[in-house]
């Protein structure tokens, strides 16, 4: 009864204290796609994540009811940093849902033009609004509509202290007439939130390590059954000194320790409902701030390395001492020389083998299609002799003769066989995610093997110059580059054996692998050079390569390939690839295979489409 009454009271007092328009509330999840399109279309950085941010501490003067209900201590605000744009989890500022949606769009436009940190929050926001409206005058009426509606929602400050009244008057004028207010009074409480403006990112605690984000993502990559809120919300974080110190004196009673004879090992049973990860996520969701140790050593990463790396006798066969490669640091805007160590390797326990029986029928169909490329013929224009008269060349000759020119012309055209002057390198992502199962019988790595084998059969039938490599990584000093077929090797059962021997590796340091593939392709003498990248996810590693660093390094590596006349093209089975591949490869530089089981057939077909006019 007591709990029931308490629940009723809590609902009542919370509703009374809430000043938002709950009936018109718009959740971020409802507008996230539209906001993303607007942000990038208006000039926002295309690689930035756009996500909901949890409420942050906001010291504002509260009403008596709000104090009783414990409301209005934290407010969800719009802000951004180098990694992402973070917008309120929901907006119920205005009495209509249309205006709340408009507010989300306006914040995205504002964020797209906010390129530097705030020096003075109110003055800088006014200038930001002025810049946006000056560049896009058509937005003026929409902004004024939001501004007028926003002013009507402001609390009456007539009974507040004089300084707070002056602050409120200054904010109202600054919103209605951006750029008109240069002085803001000092107050003891923060003003009522100005939802039409961006806020600075929360400052780091002086004791917080500078290389850690102030917010911690509660998302677990392994968890598929969490709510949308727990996947998208970001929590405030702080770092503190590690409580485990070796200094000081420990006092204890020796008789309180177990002896060997008293120790009993108990087997704690578990079942499917005992899900620690899910409970941890629920706890994290309820926390306002996540506190982490200030200890710098990343023990989890080192343990993962020790457990994942096989012994030398079980590992793939290394070829040499490694190749040092650069890596792009987007923060410094600098290519750091010799930052990565790439290790060429051969698959362990590979034996020459025939094409698997299950692929032989499909291989014959694909080979028959590719053999048509042999029959492609073309006209060689402007020849001294040939089968037919070249009418265009004759017309040019006739006009020049009328002008008195004596220059000789080839007046014939000759019918020639196709000359496919092309080199192709297939680079396959062999990261640990390829160990995932597609169904009861097949993993991603099995589909990759079949795809590469059919690719080899197809290109071998047409006689194209090609090579195949795989890659994975563990930090920047161990980028594993698996040699499956180089350009000088003949496609044979030895190559098929290597393809059959590949296995899932570790992480996806894509930039280094692309740079090495580019170097190999650049050494080929053909006029056309194609780099095909087969992957199932975005660039990542267990060090700083996660997130934007990996994306930017990969983009820079792809740009380097373009400058050398190499055409990169990505084939992926990652269903979320639309979020980042256009930024990496351009709108025409990739394709997404929505059914991974079709990859073995689709890969040769894509190559056929990309090269049939070469």
In short:
The chain has 614 residues and is α/β, with parallel strands linked by helices. The protein has helices spanning 2-17, 28-41, 64-69, 97-112, 121-135, 140-152, 162-176, 228-232, 276-286, 299-308, 357-371, 391-402, 444-462, 493-501, 510-522, 548-563, 581-585, 599-611, and strands at 26-27, 49-53, 56-57, 74-75, 79-80, 84-88, 90-91, 215-217, 234-240, 289-293, 317-318, 323-329, 334-346, 377-383, 388-389, 412-417, 422-429, 465-473, 479-485, 528-535, 567-572, 590-592.
Structural write-up:
With 614 residues, the protein is α/β, with parallel strands linked by helices. The protein folds into three domains: 2-176, no CATH class; 317-371 and 420-611, 3-Layer(aba) Sandwich (Rossmann fold), CATH 3.40.50.410; 378-417, no CATH class. The protein has 18 helices and 22 strands. Strands 11, 12, 13, 17, 18, 19, 20, 21 and 22 form a nine-stranded mixed beta sheet that branches. A three-stranded mixed beta sheet has the order 2-6-5, with helices on one face. Helix 17 links the parallel strand 21 and strand 22. Helix 2 (28-41) runs parallel beside helix 4, helix 11 runs parallel beside helix 13 (444-462) and helix 15 (510-522) runs parallel beside helix 16. The chain is globular, with a radius of gyration of 32 Å. The model is unreliable at 203-232, 254-275 and 296-307 (pLDDT under 50).
Low-confidence stretches: 203-232, 254-275, 296-307
CATH superfamily of the largest domain: von Willebrand factor, type A domain
Text of the CATH class of the largest domain: Alpha Beta
Give the distance, in angstroms, between the N- and C-terminal Cα atoms. Answer: 80 Å
Strand content: 15-25%
In round numbers, the mean pLDDT is 78
Pfam families: VWA (PF00092)
InterPro entries: NorD/CobT, VWF_A, vWFA_dom_sf
Organism: Thalassotalea profundi
Biased composition (Acidic residues): 212-222
């Amino acid at each position: 009864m007591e709990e029931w009454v308490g629940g009723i009271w809590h609902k009542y007092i919370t509703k009374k204290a809430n000043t938002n328009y709950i009936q018109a509330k718009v959740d971020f999840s409802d507008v996230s796609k539209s906001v993303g399109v607007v942000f990038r279309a208006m000039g926002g950085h295309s690689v930035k994540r756009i996500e909901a941010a949890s409420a942050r501490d906001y010291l504002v003067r509260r009403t008596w009811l709000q104090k009783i209900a414990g409301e209005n201590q934290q407010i969800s605000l719009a802000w951004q940093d180098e990694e992402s744009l973070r917008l309120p989890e929901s907006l119920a500022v205005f009495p209509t849902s249309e205006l709340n949606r408009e507010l989300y769009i306006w914040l995205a436009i504002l964020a797209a033009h906010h390129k530097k940190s705030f020096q003075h929050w109110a003055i800088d926001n006014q200038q930001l609004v002025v810049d946006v409206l000056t560049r896009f005058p058509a937005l003026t009426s929409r902004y004024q509509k939001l501004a007028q509606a926003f002013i009507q929602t402001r609390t009456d400050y007539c009974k507040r202290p004089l300084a707070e009244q002056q602050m409120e008057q200054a904010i109202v004028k600054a919103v209605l007439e951006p750029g008109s207010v240069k002085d803001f009074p000092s107050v003891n409480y923060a003003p009522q939130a100005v939802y039409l403006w961006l806020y600075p990112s929360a400052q780091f605690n002086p004791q917080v390590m500078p290389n850690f984000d102030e917010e911690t993502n509660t998302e677990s990559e392994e968890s598929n059954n969490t709510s949308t809120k727990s996947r998208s919300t970001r929590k405030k974080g702080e770092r503190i000194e590690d409580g485990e110190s070796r200094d000081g004196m420990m006092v204890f009673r020796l008789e309180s320790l177990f002896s060997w004879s008293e120790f009993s090992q108990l087997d704690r049973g578990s079942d499917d409902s005992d899900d620690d990860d899910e409970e941890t996520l629920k706890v994290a969701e309820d926390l306002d701030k996540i506190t982490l140790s200030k200890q710098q050593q990343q023990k989890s990463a080192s343990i993962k390395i020790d457990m994942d790396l096989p012994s030398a006798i079980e590992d793939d066969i290394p070829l040499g001492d490694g190749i040092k490669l650069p890596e792009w640091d987007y923060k410094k805007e600098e290519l750091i020389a010799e930052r990565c160590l790439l290790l060429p390797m051969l698959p362990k326990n590979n034996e020459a083998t025939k094409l698997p029986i299950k692929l032989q029928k499909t291989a014959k169909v694909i080979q028959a299609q590719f053999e048509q490329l042999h029959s492609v013929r073309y006209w060689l224009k402007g020849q001294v002799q040939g089968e037919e008269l070249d009418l265009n060349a004759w017309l040019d000759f006739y006009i020049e003769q009328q002008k008195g020119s004596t220059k000789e012309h080839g007046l014939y055209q000759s019918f020639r066989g196709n000359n496919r002057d092309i080199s192709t390198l297939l680079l396959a992502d062999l990261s640990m995610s390829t160990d995932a199962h597609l169904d009861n019988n097949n993993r991603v790595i099995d589909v990759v093997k079949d795809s590469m084998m059919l690719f080899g059969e197809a290109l071998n039938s047409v006689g194209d110059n090609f090579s195949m490599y795989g890659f994975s990584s563990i930090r920047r000093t161990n980028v594993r580059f698996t040699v499956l077929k180089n350009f000088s090797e003949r496609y044979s059962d030895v190559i098929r054996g290597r393809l059959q021997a590949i296995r899932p590796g570790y992480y996806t340091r894509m930039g280094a692998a692309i740079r090495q593939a580019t170097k190999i392709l650049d050494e080929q003498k053909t006029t056309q050079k194609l780099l095909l990248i087969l992957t199932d996810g975005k660039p990542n590693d267990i060090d700083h390569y996660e997130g934007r660093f990996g994306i930017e390094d990969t983009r820079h590596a792809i740009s380097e390939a373009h400058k050398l006349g190499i055409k990169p093209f990505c084939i992926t089975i990652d269903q979320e690839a639309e979020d980042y591949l256009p930024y990496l490869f351009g709108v025409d530089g990739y394709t997404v295979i929505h059914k991974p089981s079709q990859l073995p057939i689709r890969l040769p077909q894509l190559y056929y489409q990309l090269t049939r006019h070469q």
